[in-house]
Amino acid sequence: MSDDRTRERWTRATVYPDMWTDPDDDPRENDGPSPEGEAATLLDYLTSYRMTLRMKCEGLDAEQLARRSVPPSTMSLLGLVRHLAEVERDWRNWLTDGEPEPKIYGVRDADFDGAVADPAVVAASYADLEREQAATDAVLAAHPDLGERVGKDEVAIRDLLVHRIEEYARHCGHADLLRECVDGRVGQ
To answer: Region entry Disordered: which residue ranges (predicted)?
Structure first.
């Protein structure tokens, strides 16, 4: 590497050098048939994007995960993990007629601002994400009809699922660029 600003680009893939990892090592790859039905397909895409985010963060220490992209942005890989935990809770709040659960990290942008290079913060952030994902998955599982409208705004379950996929997909694109800035690792 020439300096902190210019990283040598690299990948672990050997079969297809423009990929993040070889297909045989990719947990998102499935040799079986594609999912049956709309709900199963949407959940498969969501699962894949969730795995992609985790893969983009693998092998990095707390400092690397908390490293900011380009000033004045506060975006970091750890910030994305925290943000997506917050987003899971927010989307779950759309399902209820009652009072929304409070923000996990408090004030606006605390998900990114609080993404500091501390191993305890990293561990807590991953735990928050896993807890919020499981809670939202459980609530949505109680609504198998994708056309059902729920919450104060009567949003369709399908809409919530698609928005979750969109949120993860967008942030996985950010994660690609953030990871490349951290250590030069690139891929699909």
So the answer is: 16-38
In our burial notation (b when 16+ CB lie closer than 10 A, e otherwise), range 134-170 reads eebeeebeebeebeeebeeeebebbbbbeebbebbee
Is 1 inside any structural domain? no
Query: How many C-beta atoms lie closer than 10 Å to residue 77's C-beta?
Result: 25
| Total-model pTM | 0.87
pLDDT in tens, 36-58: 899 999 999 999 999 999 999 99
Range of the domain at 126: 23-183
Position 10 in a domain: no
Pairing of strands 149-150, 155-156: antiparallel
Whether residue 18 lies inside any domain: the answer is no
Tokens 């000033």 belong to residue? 71
* 171 touches 80 (CB < 8 A): yes
Number of domains in the chain: 1
- For the segment 126-155, what is each residue's pLDDT rounded down to a tens digit? 999 999 999 999 999 999 999 999 998 999
3-state secondary structure 75-112: CCHHHHHHHHHHHHHHHHHCCCCCCCCCCCCCCCCHHH
CATH number where 156 lies: 1.20.120.450
Residues whose CB falls within 8 Å of the CB of residue 23, separated by 6 or more in sequence, listed in order = 15, 16, 29
